[in-house]
Design a protein that fits this description.
heterodimer; A: Rossmann fold; 2 domains; 9 strands; 39% helix; B: 188 residues; alpha/beta; Rossmann fold; five-stranded parallel beta sheet; three-stranded antiparallel beta sheet; 8 strands; 29% helix
Chain lengths: 323, 188
Amino acid sequence: MTATTLRQRGPKHLLSMADLDRDDIEQILNLTESFAEVGERSIPRVPALRGKTIAWLFYEDSTRTRLSFETAAKRLSADTMNFSVGSSSVNKGESLRDTVETIAAMGIDGIVVRHGAAGAPRQVSEWTDASVINAGDGWHQHPTQSLLDLYTARQHLDELDGKHIAIIGDIKHSRVARSNALGFSAMGARVTLVAPPTLLPSTLDGWPVEATHDLDAVLEELDICYLLRMQLERQGQAVVPSLREYHNEYGLTSARADRLPNDALIMHPGPMNRGVEIAGEVADRPAAVITEQVANGVSVRMAVLFLLLGSGLDVVDEQRAIA
Amino acid sequence: MAERERLLAGSASGHFQARTQVMTADDVARAVKRMAHEILERNHGSAGVMLIGMQTGGVALAVRLATAVTEIEGSQIPVGTLDATMHRDDFGLRPVMPEASTEIPEDPTGKTIVLVDDVLFTGRTVRAALDAIHSYGRPQAIQLAVMVDRGHRELPIRPDYVGKNLPTRRDEMVDVNDSGVELGEMVS
Protein backbone atom coordinates (compact mmCIF):
# COMPACT_ATOMS: atom_id res chain seq x y z
CA MET A 1 0.00 0.00 0.00
CA THR A 2 1.31 3.43 -0.86
CA ALA A 3 1.77 5.89 1.95
CA THR A 4 1.02 9.01 -0.08
CA THR A 5 -1.47 11.31 1.55
CA LEU A 6 -4.56 12.93 0.16
CA ARG A 7 -2.77 16.22 -0.39
CA GLN A 8 0.30 14.71 -2.00
CA ARG A 9 -1.71 12.77 -4.53
CA GLY A 10 -4.23 15.51 -5.05
CA PRO A 11 -7.64 14.58 -3.78
CA LYS A 12 -8.64 12.18 -6.52
CA HIS A 13 -9.77 8.99 -4.78
CA LEU A 14 -10.75 7.94 -1.28
CA LEU A 15 -9.73 4.31 -0.93
CA SER A 16 -8.40 3.70 2.55
CA MET A 17 -7.89 5.47 5.85
CA ALA A 18 -4.25 4.47 5.45
CA ASP A 19 -4.00 7.14 2.71
CA LEU A 20 -5.04 9.92 5.08
CA ASP A 21 -2.83 11.62 7.62
CA ARG A 22 -4.04 13.71 10.52
CA ASP A 23 -4.14 16.95 8.49
CA ASP A 24 -6.18 15.30 5.73
CA ILE A 25 -8.68 13.96 8.24
CA GLU A 26 -8.96 17.33 9.97
CA GLN A 27 -9.54 19.05 6.64
CA ILE A 28 -12.39 16.68 5.85
CA LEU A 29 -13.93 16.99 9.33
CA ASN A 30 -13.78 20.80 9.19
CA LEU A 31 -15.36 20.79 5.74
CA THR A 32 -18.08 18.50 7.10
CA GLU A 33 -19.23 21.27 9.43
CA SER A 34 -20.07 23.50 6.46
CA PHE A 35 -22.11 20.73 4.90
CA ALA A 36 -23.92 19.82 8.11
CA GLU A 37 -25.33 23.35 8.02
CA VAL A 38 -26.81 22.72 4.55
CA GLY A 39 -28.83 19.83 5.99
CA GLU A 40 -30.50 22.19 8.46
CA ARG A 41 -31.94 24.51 5.80
CA SER A 42 -35.59 24.31 4.86
CA ILE A 43 -34.43 23.47 1.33
CA PRO A 44 -31.32 21.36 1.99
CA ARG A 45 -29.77 21.54 -1.43
CA VAL A 46 -26.82 23.44 -2.92
CA PRO A 47 -25.70 23.48 -6.55
CA ALA A 48 -22.06 22.65 -5.78
CA LEU A 49 -21.91 19.46 -7.88
CA ARG A 50 -24.39 20.47 -10.55
CA GLY A 51 -23.55 18.71 -13.80
CA LYS A 52 -21.47 15.99 -12.15
CA THR A 53 -22.52 12.38 -12.46
CA ILE A 54 -21.82 9.77 -9.82
CA ALA A 55 -22.36 6.05 -10.32
CA TRP A 56 -23.06 3.57 -7.54
CA LEU A 57 -21.39 0.24 -8.08
CA PHE A 58 -22.55 -2.00 -5.26
CA TYR A 59 -21.62 -5.66 -5.44
CA GLU A 60 -22.74 -6.20 -1.85
CA ASP A 61 -25.95 -5.48 0.00
CA SER A 62 -26.14 -2.07 1.54
CA THR A 63 -29.03 0.03 2.66
CA ARG A 64 -27.73 2.74 4.89
CA THR A 65 -24.41 3.47 3.18
CA ARG A 66 -26.08 3.64 -0.18
CA LEU A 67 -28.97 5.80 0.99
CA SER A 68 -26.52 8.03 2.80
CA PHE A 69 -24.36 8.51 -0.31
CA GLU A 70 -27.48 9.00 -2.41
CA THR A 71 -28.79 11.70 -0.06
CA ALA A 72 -25.39 13.39 0.04
CA ALA A 73 -25.17 13.46 -3.76
CA LYS A 74 -28.70 14.84 -4.11
CA ARG A 75 -28.05 17.60 -1.57
CA LEU A 76 -25.11 18.63 -3.74
CA SER A 77 -27.27 18.52 -6.91
CA ALA A 78 -25.20 15.78 -8.55
CA ASP A 79 -26.80 13.33 -10.96
CA THR A 80 -26.63 9.73 -9.88
CA MET A 81 -26.52 6.53 -11.84
CA ASN A 82 -27.56 3.36 -10.18
CA PHE A 83 -25.85 0.13 -11.03
CA SER A 84 -27.51 -2.69 -9.17
CA VAL A 85 -25.66 -5.91 -9.61
CA GLY A 86 -28.73 -8.12 -9.29
CA SER A 87 -30.37 -6.90 -12.48
CA SER A 88 -27.33 -6.15 -14.60
CA SER A 89 -25.02 -7.90 -16.98
CA VAL A 90 -22.84 -9.01 -14.07
CA ASN A 91 -25.34 -11.86 -13.95
CA LYS A 92 -24.43 -12.52 -17.58
CA GLY A 93 -20.80 -12.98 -16.63
CA GLU A 94 -19.36 -9.52 -17.27
CA SER A 95 -16.08 -8.91 -15.44
CA LEU A 96 -15.57 -6.04 -12.98
CA ARG A 97 -13.18 -4.38 -15.39
CA ASP A 98 -15.60 -4.48 -18.32
CA THR A 99 -18.40 -3.22 -16.11
CA VAL A 100 -16.28 -0.29 -14.94
CA GLU A 101 -15.15 0.58 -18.43
CA THR A 102 -18.73 0.45 -19.68
CA ILE A 103 -19.97 2.81 -16.99
CA ALA A 104 -16.97 5.09 -17.44
CA ALA A 105 -17.65 5.29 -21.17
CA MET A 106 -21.00 6.91 -20.42
CA GLY A 107 -19.11 9.83 -18.92
CA ILE A 108 -19.08 9.91 -15.16
CA ASP A 109 -17.13 11.93 -12.63
CA GLY A 110 -17.22 9.58 -9.66
CA ILE A 111 -17.76 5.92 -8.84
CA VAL A 112 -18.71 4.74 -5.37
CA VAL A 113 -17.70 1.10 -5.07
CA ARG A 114 -18.68 -1.57 -2.61
CA HIS A 115 -17.25 -5.00 -3.30
CA GLY A 116 -16.69 -8.22 -1.42
CA ALA A 117 -13.04 -8.41 -2.41
CA ALA A 118 -10.48 -6.35 -0.53
CA GLY A 119 -8.69 -3.98 -2.89
CA ALA A 120 -11.39 -3.94 -5.57
CA PRO A 121 -11.86 -0.12 -5.36
CA ARG A 122 -8.12 0.44 -5.77
CA GLN A 123 -8.18 -1.80 -8.80
CA VAL A 124 -11.16 0.11 -10.19
CA SER A 125 -9.29 3.39 -9.72
CA GLU A 126 -6.63 2.15 -12.13
CA TRP A 127 -9.18 1.46 -14.84
CA THR A 128 -10.92 4.82 -14.95
CA ASP A 129 -10.30 8.56 -14.88
CA ALA A 130 -13.24 9.08 -12.55
CA SER A 131 -12.77 9.60 -8.83
CA VAL A 132 -13.27 6.38 -6.91
CA ILE A 133 -14.68 6.23 -3.40
CA ASN A 134 -14.48 3.04 -1.41
CA ALA A 135 -17.81 2.28 0.25
CA GLY A 136 -16.54 -0.96 1.74
CA ASP A 137 -14.29 -3.66 0.31
CA GLY A 138 -14.47 -7.05 1.98
CA TRP A 139 -12.81 -7.09 5.39
CA HIS A 140 -10.47 -4.31 4.35
CA GLN A 141 -11.67 -0.69 4.57
CA HIS A 142 -14.73 1.53 4.83
CA PRO A 143 -13.23 5.02 5.04
CA THR A 144 -16.40 7.15 5.03
CA GLN A 145 -17.71 5.14 7.99
CA SER A 146 -14.54 5.91 9.90
CA LEU A 147 -14.73 9.61 8.98
CA LEU A 148 -18.31 9.88 10.20
CA ASP A 149 -17.36 8.10 13.43
CA LEU A 150 -14.47 10.50 13.94
CA TYR A 151 -16.74 13.46 13.24
CA THR A 152 -19.38 12.23 15.70
CA ALA A 153 -16.80 11.49 18.38
CA ARG A 154 -15.15 14.87 17.90
CA GLN A 155 -18.51 16.66 18.24
CA HIS A 156 -18.96 15.17 21.71
CA LEU A 157 -15.38 14.98 22.97
CA ASP A 158 -13.89 18.08 21.22
CA GLU A 159 -10.44 16.59 21.02
CA LEU A 160 -9.56 12.96 20.30
CA ASP A 161 -5.93 13.23 21.44
CA GLY A 162 -5.30 10.82 24.31
CA LYS A 163 -8.88 9.53 24.36
CA HIS A 164 -9.36 5.79 24.77
CA ILE A 165 -11.62 3.88 22.39
CA ALA A 166 -12.41 0.18 22.61
CA ILE A 167 -13.62 -1.51 19.46
CA ILE A 168 -15.50 -4.57 20.56
CA GLY A 169 -16.67 -7.61 18.66
CA ASP A 170 -16.01 -9.24 15.36
CA ILE A 171 -12.71 -7.51 14.58
CA LYS A 172 -11.53 -10.18 12.19
CA HIS A 173 -14.29 -9.75 9.64
CA SER A 174 -14.74 -6.02 10.13
CA ARG A 175 -13.63 -3.35 7.67
CA VAL A 176 -15.07 -0.81 10.10
CA ALA A 177 -12.63 -1.99 12.77
CA ARG A 178 -9.69 -1.76 10.38
CA SER A 179 -10.70 1.72 9.21
CA ASN A 180 -11.33 3.01 12.72
CA ALA A 181 -8.14 1.52 14.16
CA LEU A 182 -6.26 3.66 11.64
CA GLY A 183 -8.53 6.70 11.83
CA PHE A 184 -8.72 7.05 15.59
CA SER A 185 -5.01 6.39 16.12
CA ALA A 186 -4.15 8.93 13.40
CA MET A 187 -6.11 11.47 15.46
CA GLY A 188 -4.07 10.64 18.55
CA ALA A 189 -6.52 8.33 20.32
CA ARG A 190 -5.56 5.08 22.05
CA VAL A 191 -7.28 2.12 20.40
CA THR A 192 -7.96 -1.19 22.16
CA LEU A 193 -9.51 -4.09 20.29
CA VAL A 194 -11.68 -6.37 22.42
CA ALA A 195 -12.76 -9.76 21.08
CA PRO A 196 -12.61 -13.47 21.73
CA PRO A 197 -9.49 -15.07 20.20
CA THR A 198 -11.51 -16.50 17.33
CA LEU A 199 -12.68 -13.06 16.26
CA LEU A 200 -9.28 -11.35 16.29
CA PRO A 201 -7.08 -11.42 13.18
CA SER A 202 -4.29 -13.97 13.39
CA THR A 203 -1.72 -11.20 13.65
CA LEU A 204 -1.89 -7.57 14.69
CA ASP A 205 1.60 -6.71 13.41
CA GLY A 206 1.66 -3.16 12.15
CA TRP A 207 -1.69 -2.23 13.69
CA PRO A 208 -1.42 0.84 15.94
CA VAL A 209 -3.54 -0.87 18.61
CA GLU A 210 -3.61 -2.95 21.77
CA ALA A 211 -5.79 -6.03 22.09
CA THR A 212 -7.48 -7.87 24.94
CA HIS A 213 -9.98 -10.65 25.42
CA ASP A 214 -11.43 -9.13 28.58
CA LEU A 215 -14.04 -6.41 28.11
CA ASP A 216 -14.62 -5.93 31.84
CA ALA A 217 -10.98 -5.03 32.38
CA VAL A 218 -11.10 -1.92 30.17
CA LEU A 219 -14.70 -0.68 30.58
CA GLU A 220 -14.05 1.85 33.33
CA GLU A 221 -11.35 3.76 31.48
CA LEU A 222 -13.12 4.18 28.13
CA ASP A 223 -14.12 7.42 26.44
CA ILE A 224 -15.73 5.58 23.54
CA CYS A 225 -17.28 2.14 23.56
CA TYR A 226 -17.53 1.11 19.91
CA LEU A 227 -19.55 -2.03 19.27
CA LEU A 228 -19.41 -4.02 16.07
CA ARG A 229 -22.16 -6.11 14.59
CA MET A 230 -21.72 -9.85 14.65
CA GLN A 231 -21.30 -10.39 10.93
CA LEU A 232 -22.93 -13.77 10.67
CA GLU A 233 -22.89 -13.61 6.87
CA ARG A 234 -19.09 -13.24 6.69
CA GLN A 235 -18.21 -15.92 9.19
CA GLY A 236 -17.27 -19.17 7.53
CA GLN A 237 -17.69 -21.37 10.57
CA ALA A 238 -18.96 -21.10 14.09
CA VAL A 239 -16.56 -18.70 15.80
CA VAL A 240 -18.50 -18.32 19.03
CA PRO A 241 -20.30 -21.11 20.86
CA SER A 242 -23.62 -19.27 20.84
CA LEU A 243 -24.92 -15.72 20.48
CA ARG A 244 -26.16 -15.84 24.05
CA GLU A 245 -22.72 -16.68 25.34
CA TYR A 246 -21.25 -13.93 23.18
CA HIS A 247 -23.73 -11.46 24.65
CA ASN A 248 -22.76 -12.48 28.19
CA GLU A 249 -19.02 -12.20 27.56
CA TYR A 250 -18.72 -9.32 25.06
CA GLY A 251 -22.14 -7.69 24.76
CA LEU A 252 -22.72 -4.24 26.26
CA THR A 253 -25.28 -5.28 28.83
CA SER A 254 -27.06 -2.79 31.10
CA ALA A 255 -24.74 -3.72 33.96
CA ARG A 256 -21.65 -3.06 31.81
CA ALA A 257 -23.07 0.20 30.44
CA ASP A 258 -23.54 1.37 34.04
CA ARG A 259 -19.83 0.90 34.66
CA LEU A 260 -18.80 3.16 31.76
CA PRO A 261 -17.64 6.66 32.76
CA ASN A 262 -20.49 9.20 32.75
CA ASP A 263 -19.47 11.05 29.61
CA ALA A 264 -18.41 7.98 27.61
CA LEU A 265 -20.01 7.54 24.19
CA ILE A 266 -21.61 4.34 22.93
CA MET A 267 -21.22 3.96 19.17
CA HIS A 268 -22.26 1.34 16.64
CA PRO A 269 -21.94 1.41 12.83
CA GLY A 270 -25.33 -0.29 12.38
CA PRO A 271 -27.32 -2.28 11.69
CA MET A 272 -27.61 -3.31 15.34
CA ASN A 273 -28.43 -6.78 16.63
CA ARG A 274 -30.17 -5.78 19.84
CA GLY A 275 -29.60 -8.43 22.48
CA VAL A 276 -26.37 -9.65 20.86
CA GLU A 277 -23.62 -7.03 20.86
CA ILE A 278 -25.73 -4.43 22.67
CA ALA A 279 -28.66 -4.73 25.09
CA GLY A 280 -31.84 -3.21 23.68
CA GLU A 281 -32.17 -0.75 26.54
CA VAL A 282 -28.55 0.44 26.27
CA ALA A 283 -28.98 1.40 22.61
CA ASP A 284 -31.65 3.92 23.65
CA ARG A 285 -29.61 5.64 26.35
CA PRO A 286 -28.51 9.27 25.82
CA ALA A 287 -24.87 8.13 25.71
CA ALA A 288 -25.64 6.09 22.59
CA VAL A 289 -25.06 8.38 19.61
CA ILE A 290 -25.96 5.79 17.00
CA THR A 291 -28.60 7.82 15.17
CA GLU A 292 -26.30 10.86 15.22
CA GLN A 293 -23.72 8.72 13.44
CA VAL A 294 -26.26 8.11 10.67
CA ALA A 295 -27.15 11.79 10.38
CA ASN A 296 -23.48 12.79 10.31
CA GLY A 297 -22.87 10.17 7.64
CA VAL A 298 -24.70 12.31 5.10
CA SER A 299 -22.67 15.44 5.97
CA VAL A 300 -19.35 13.59 5.88
CA ARG A 301 -20.17 12.03 2.52
CA MET A 302 -21.15 15.44 1.15
CA ALA A 303 -17.76 16.74 2.26
CA VAL A 304 -15.94 13.81 0.64
CA LEU A 305 -17.88 14.05 -2.63
CA PHE A 306 -17.32 17.81 -2.73
CA LEU A 307 -13.62 17.50 -1.95
CA LEU A 308 -13.03 14.92 -4.67
CA LEU A 309 -15.39 16.23 -7.35
CA GLY A 310 -16.15 19.88 -6.75
CA SER A 311 -13.52 21.71 -4.77
CA GLY A 312 -11.33 22.45 -7.77
CA LEU A 313 -8.22 21.49 -5.83
CA ASP A 314 -7.16 19.31 -8.75
CA VAL A 315 -7.46 22.39 -10.98
CA VAL A 316 -4.84 24.09 -8.84
CA ASP A 317 -2.56 21.13 -9.19
CA GLU A 318 -2.91 21.27 -12.98
CA GLN A 319 -2.20 24.98 -13.02
CA ARG A 320 0.87 24.38 -10.90
CA ALA A 321 1.98 21.63 -13.24
CA ILE A 322 1.64 24.00 -16.22
CA ALA A 323 3.47 26.79 -14.43
CA MET B 1 -15.70 39.87 -0.85
CA ALA B 2 -12.36 41.41 -1.66
CA GLU B 3 -10.82 40.06 1.50
CA ARG B 4 -12.07 36.55 0.86
CA GLU B 5 -10.93 36.49 -2.74
CA ARG B 6 -7.51 37.57 -1.66
CA LEU B 7 -7.42 34.70 0.83
CA LEU B 8 -8.46 32.21 -1.80
CA ALA B 9 -6.07 33.54 -4.37
CA GLY B 10 -3.36 32.64 -1.89
CA SER B 11 0.32 33.11 -2.35
CA ALA B 12 0.18 32.33 -6.08
CA SER B 13 -1.16 35.84 -6.81
CA GLY B 14 1.09 37.65 -4.37
CA HIS B 15 -0.10 40.07 -1.73
CA PHE B 16 -2.14 43.27 -1.55
CA GLN B 17 -0.25 46.56 -1.72
CA ALA B 18 -2.21 49.69 -0.88
CA ARG B 19 -1.70 52.75 -3.10
CA THR B 20 -4.37 55.27 -2.02
CA GLN B 21 -6.43 55.74 1.09
CA VAL B 22 -9.93 56.24 -0.32
CA MET B 23 -11.90 56.52 2.91
CA THR B 24 -10.63 57.05 6.44
CA ALA B 25 -12.06 55.18 9.42
CA ASP B 26 -14.11 58.30 10.21
CA ASP B 27 -15.48 58.41 6.66
CA VAL B 28 -16.58 54.79 7.00
CA ALA B 29 -18.23 55.51 10.36
CA ARG B 30 -20.19 58.40 8.82
CA ALA B 31 -21.21 56.25 5.87
CA VAL B 32 -22.42 53.50 8.20
CA LYS B 33 -24.57 56.01 10.08
CA ARG B 34 -26.06 57.40 6.86
CA MET B 35 -26.76 53.91 5.47
CA ALA B 36 -28.49 52.92 8.71
CA HIS B 37 -30.74 55.99 8.33
CA GLU B 38 -31.45 55.10 4.72
CA ILE B 39 -32.36 51.50 5.62
CA LEU B 40 -34.80 52.76 8.27
CA GLU B 41 -36.25 55.39 5.96
CA ARG B 42 -36.80 53.00 3.08
CA ASN B 43 -38.39 50.30 5.29
CA HIS B 44 -40.38 52.69 7.53
CA GLY B 45 -38.52 51.56 10.65
CA SER B 46 -36.79 48.38 11.60
CA ALA B 47 -39.74 46.02 12.03
CA GLY B 48 -39.38 42.88 9.90
CA VAL B 49 -35.86 43.81 8.76
CA MET B 50 -32.98 41.33 9.09
CA LEU B 51 -29.35 42.11 8.23
CA ILE B 52 -27.29 39.32 6.68
CA GLY B 53 -23.53 39.89 6.45
CA MET B 54 -21.84 38.06 3.60
CA GLN B 55 -18.86 36.02 4.69
CA THR B 56 -16.31 37.17 5.28
CA GLY B 57 -16.04 40.88 4.41
CA GLY B 58 -19.66 41.84 5.08
CA VAL B 59 -20.02 40.39 8.55
CA ALA B 60 -18.36 43.19 10.49
CA LEU B 61 -20.21 45.82 8.44
CA ALA B 62 -23.58 44.14 9.16
CA VAL B 63 -22.86 44.27 12.89
CA ARG B 64 -21.92 47.97 12.66
CA LEU B 65 -25.11 48.76 10.73
CA ALA B 66 -27.20 46.91 13.33
CA THR B 67 -25.52 48.86 16.13
CA ALA B 68 -26.19 52.13 14.29
CA VAL B 69 -29.86 51.17 13.83
CA THR B 70 -30.15 50.49 17.56
CA GLU B 71 -28.61 53.89 18.33
CA ILE B 72 -31.12 55.64 16.08
CA GLU B 73 -34.32 53.70 16.82
CA GLY B 74 -33.55 52.04 20.13
CA SER B 75 -34.70 48.72 18.67
CA GLN B 76 -32.69 45.53 18.14
CA ILE B 77 -32.64 43.96 14.70
CA PRO B 78 -31.52 40.41 13.95
CA VAL B 79 -28.10 40.00 12.31
CA GLY B 80 -27.02 36.84 10.49
CA THR B 81 -24.13 35.65 8.37
CA LEU B 82 -24.11 33.87 5.03
CA ASP B 83 -21.45 31.88 3.22
CA ALA B 84 -22.67 31.55 -0.36
CA THR B 85 -19.64 29.60 -1.54
CA MET B 86 -21.61 26.50 -2.45
CA HIS B 87 -23.89 28.51 -4.71
CA ARG B 88 -21.14 30.09 -6.77
CA ASP B 89 -20.97 29.61 -10.53
CA ASP B 90 -17.21 29.24 -10.85
CA PHE B 91 -16.75 25.73 -9.49
CA GLY B 92 -14.00 23.98 -11.34
CA LEU B 93 -12.48 27.25 -12.54
CA ARG B 94 -10.64 28.00 -9.34
CA PRO B 95 -10.36 26.42 -5.92
CA VAL B 96 -13.51 27.01 -3.93
CA MET B 97 -13.76 25.95 -0.32
CA PRO B 98 -16.48 26.83 2.14
CA GLU B 99 -14.72 27.93 5.29
CA ALA B 100 -16.94 30.41 7.03
CA SER B 101 -20.16 29.74 8.84
CA THR B 102 -23.73 30.54 7.88
CA GLU B 103 -26.11 31.55 10.59
CA ILE B 104 -29.58 32.78 9.74
CA PRO B 105 -31.08 33.72 13.13
CA GLU B 106 -34.73 33.78 12.05
CA ASP B 107 -36.85 32.28 9.30
CA PRO B 108 -36.46 34.78 6.42
CA THR B 109 -39.96 34.06 5.10
CA GLY B 110 -41.94 37.30 4.92
CA LYS B 111 -39.02 39.44 6.15
CA THR B 112 -37.07 42.16 4.44
CA ILE B 113 -33.50 40.96 4.14
CA VAL B 114 -30.67 43.45 3.77
CA LEU B 115 -27.62 41.66 2.36
CA VAL B 116 -24.46 43.41 3.50
CA ASP B 117 -21.03 43.19 1.86
CA ASP B 118 -17.90 45.28 1.93
CA VAL B 119 -17.20 45.57 -1.80
CA LEU B 120 -19.54 45.11 -4.77
CA PHE B 121 -17.65 44.11 -7.91
CA THR B 122 -18.92 41.67 -10.58
CA GLY B 123 -22.12 40.89 -8.69
CA ARG B 124 -21.54 37.13 -8.84
CA THR B 125 -21.26 36.72 -5.09
CA VAL B 126 -24.53 38.58 -4.65
CA ARG B 127 -26.15 36.32 -7.23
CA ALA B 128 -24.94 33.28 -5.27
CA ALA B 129 -26.23 34.84 -2.04
CA LEU B 130 -29.68 35.45 -3.56
CA ASP B 131 -29.84 31.74 -4.39
CA ALA B 132 -28.58 30.73 -0.98
CA ILE B 133 -31.11 32.89 0.90
CA HIS B 134 -33.97 31.20 -0.89
CA SER B 135 -32.99 27.81 0.43
CA TYR B 136 -33.81 29.13 3.91
CA GLY B 137 -37.21 30.60 3.06
CA ARG B 138 -38.99 33.18 0.90
CA PRO B 139 -38.27 36.74 2.00
CA GLN B 140 -40.71 39.56 1.30
CA ALA B 141 -37.86 41.57 -0.24
CA ILE B 142 -34.08 41.49 -0.47
CA GLN B 143 -32.02 44.69 -0.49
CA LEU B 144 -28.30 45.16 -0.87
CA ALA B 145 -25.98 47.36 1.19
CA VAL B 146 -22.28 47.72 0.32
CA MET B 147 -19.53 49.95 1.63
CA VAL B 148 -17.85 50.31 -1.78
CA ASP B 149 -19.37 49.91 -5.24
CA ARG B 150 -16.36 49.60 -7.54
CA GLY B 151 -18.24 48.95 -10.81
CA HIS B 152 -17.47 46.28 -13.43
CA ARG B 153 -20.76 44.48 -12.95
CA GLU B 154 -21.26 41.30 -14.98
CA LEU B 155 -24.86 40.74 -13.89
CA PRO B 156 -27.95 42.97 -13.64
CA ILE B 157 -27.47 43.67 -9.93
CA ARG B 158 -27.37 47.08 -8.23
CA PRO B 159 -27.00 48.10 -4.59
CA ASP B 160 -29.75 49.86 -2.61
CA TYR B 161 -27.40 51.43 -0.07
CA VAL B 162 -23.85 52.50 -0.96
CA GLY B 163 -21.10 53.86 1.26
CA LYS B 164 -19.04 55.14 -1.66
CA ASN B 165 -19.05 54.79 -5.43
CA LEU B 166 -15.46 54.19 -6.42
CA PRO B 167 -14.41 54.04 -10.08
CA THR B 168 -11.63 51.44 -10.43
CA ARG B 169 -9.63 49.54 -12.99
CA ARG B 170 -10.42 45.87 -13.24
CA ASP B 171 -6.98 44.79 -12.06
CA GLU B 172 -7.05 47.01 -9.02
CA MET B 173 -8.02 45.75 -5.59
CA VAL B 174 -10.20 47.37 -2.94
CA ASP B 175 -9.55 46.58 0.68
CA VAL B 176 -11.97 47.49 3.46
CA ASN B 177 -10.35 47.21 6.87
CA ASP B 178 -10.36 48.80 10.33
CA SER B 179 -8.47 51.86 9.15
CA GLY B 180 -10.90 52.61 6.30
CA VAL B 181 -10.87 51.80 2.60
CA GLU B 182 -7.74 51.44 0.52
CA LEU B 183 -7.21 51.08 -3.21
CA GLY B 184 -4.19 49.17 -4.46
CA GLU B 185 -3.17 46.12 -6.39
CA MET B 186 -1.83 42.62 -6.00
CA VAL B 187 1.92 42.40 -6.38
CA SER B 188 3.90 39.20 -6.51
